[in-house]
Amino acid sequence: MLFRLILLLTLVLLSTFKFAYASLDDYVVKQWHIQHGLASQSLKNIVQDQQGYLWIGSQFGLSRFDGNRFTNFNVNNSDFLPSNAINSLLLDNEGFLWIGTDNGLVKFSPSELSFERFSLNGPVRDIVQDNNGRIWIASNSLYLYSNQKLNTISQLLGVSDTNNNFSNKRNALVKLIGEVRKMALSPDGIWLINDRFLIRLQSLANARTGKIRFEITERISLPQRLAQSVLYDMAWLEGDLFIASEVGAYFLDIDQELRPFSLPYANNATVYKFMYDSDGSLWVSTKGRLLYRDSSGIWQWIEPSDLEQTIWFSDIFRDQDDNIWLASLTEGLWQARPSQVKRHRDSKGLNQPVTTLKFGLDNQLWLATSSGIGYLDDKDRFTVEIAAAKLGGLTVHDLHFQGGRLLLSTIIKSFVNSMQLHFAHQRCLQSKVPSKAACGLLLIEVCIVSHLMVCARLFITRF
Question: Phi, psi at residue 165, to the nearest 5°?
Answer without folding.
Answer: -60, -40
